[in-house]
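TL;DR need structure tokens for one chain.
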Amino acid sequence: NKAFESIFSDKLKSEFIFKNEDSIDLAKKISSFIIKNPIEKEEIGVYMSEIVAQKHSLNILMDKLLNALSL
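>> reply
TL;DR here they are.
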């Protein structure tokens, strides 16, 4: 999904972002991920967990809410 382009590194963009309404491209991306070795999958998981923690933690959410309410 193009909405995630801003959070992925260039390498992960090419591995996870698929062409809009292209089921074949999606299937290729899924197949490519499935055959990755466990270490690569773990590294991707850690990277994505860090992104979630950095951009969507409770502290970040509270800051966004407070900023929105103070307008």
